[in-house]
Amino acid sequence: AMDGSPPPASPAGLSAFVAVSQLLGLTLLVTTGAWLGRYRGGVAWHSPLQFNAHPLCMVLGMVFLQGDALLVYRVFRHEAKRSTKALHALLHGLALVIALVGIIAVFESHRSKGIPNMYSLHSWCGMAAFVLYLLQWLLGCGFFLFPGASFSLRGQYKPQHIFFGIALFVLSIASCLLGITEMLLFKISDTYSHLVPEGVLANTLGVMLVAFGLVVGYVLTREEWKRPPLAEELALSMDFKTLTDGESPGGGS
């Protein structure tokens, strides 16, 4: 605070739900690594194991980091808005880079093994999620991070940006669930129905993906947990509105 007093405490329950989300997210990564390491031979780039980089990168980028990027405005409630925006964009950008590595891994693996690309529902949903996520990131940077867009234009686009942010997060998790099912049916179709350990572990990973999505979604949709505007942000907003509406700075009331 400007007067040196400590910032207001976070709303009741918010810190607990954020902590649960991070615990689930880290468990997702550990479980994915355990599945690939214990049952699929691990991960290596220039080898038959290159494909295994795909699920690891997608869970890390399109789920965990994307979820954390969405939570930035709930966690950093009293920091400068521009710093929070930059972190939000940085996490999304990092998620895109990691996801791109995962996509390259699966295409190169398919090419080396003579497997066709882009024929399954998983691949369609996954590629749609990545392309739309990239577009969402570019539009978000253009409207909110870099100067140029007018205040009124930002205000008109903001609801769409928020909606598609959550929708793409849901689509990313759904694509991961489709990918887990597809991988299990390809690899252990003969024993999957017998509740073999690999199938149970992968199913558990799927349940945790859903749980992570639900916790993040709950935090995002709690109205009282939204980031309150700082005093300087409210003043700037009023200045922009005055300029946009064509009112004189001292007029009106």
Automatic annotation (TrEMBL):
Q: Give TM regions.
A: 12-36, 56-76, 88-107, 127-149, 161-180, 200-220
Describe the reaction catalysed, as an equation: monodehydro-L-ascorbate radical(out) + L-ascorbate(in) = monodehydro-L-ascorbate radical(in) + L-ascorbate(out)
Under Pfam families, the record lists: Cytochrom_B561
According to the UniProt entry, its GO molecular function terms are: metal ion binding; oxidoreductase activity
- Subcellular localization, per the record? Cytoplasmic vesicle, Secretory vesicle, Chromaffin granule membrane
Would the keyword Signal turn up in this protein's UniProt record? no
Write down any Gene Ontology CC term. Answer: lysosomal membrane
Cytochrome b561 domain: residues covered: 20-221
Q: What keywords are assigned to this protein?
A: Cytoplasmic vesicle, Electron transport, Heme, Iron, Membrane, Metal-binding, Translocase, Transmembrane, Transmembrane helix, Transport
Q: What PROSITE patterns would the database entry show?
A: CYTOCHROME_B561
Q: Does the keyword Magnesium apply?
A: no
- Name its co-factor(s): heme b
Please describe what this protein does.
Transmembrane reductase that uses ascorbate as an electron donor in the cytoplasm and transfers electrons across membranes to reduce monodehydro-L-ascorbate radical in the lumen of secretory vesicles. It is therefore involved the regeneration and homeostasis within secretory vesicles of ascorbate which in turn provides reducing equivalents needed to support the activity of intravesicular enzymes.
Kindly provide the name given to this protein in its UniProt entry: Transmembrane ascorbate-dependent reductase CYB561
